[in-house]
Amino acid sequence: MEDGKPVWAPHPADGFQLGTIVDIGADSLTIEPLKQKGKTFLAAVNQVFPAEEDVNKHVEDNCSLMYLNEATLLNNVRVRYSKDKIYTFVANILIAVNPYYDIPKLYSPETISKYRGRSLGTLPPHVYAIADKAYRDMKVLKMSQSIIVSGESGAGKTENTKFVLRYLTSSYGTGQDIDERIVEANPLLEAFGNAKTVRNNNSSRFGKFVEIHFNEKNAVVGGFVSHYLLEKSRICRQSKEERNYHIFYRLCAGAPEDIRQKFHLGSPDTFRLMENGCSTTSGLSTRDRSVSDKRFKLVVLFKASFQVV
Question: Which pLDDT score is estimated for 281?
Answer without folding.
Answer: 62
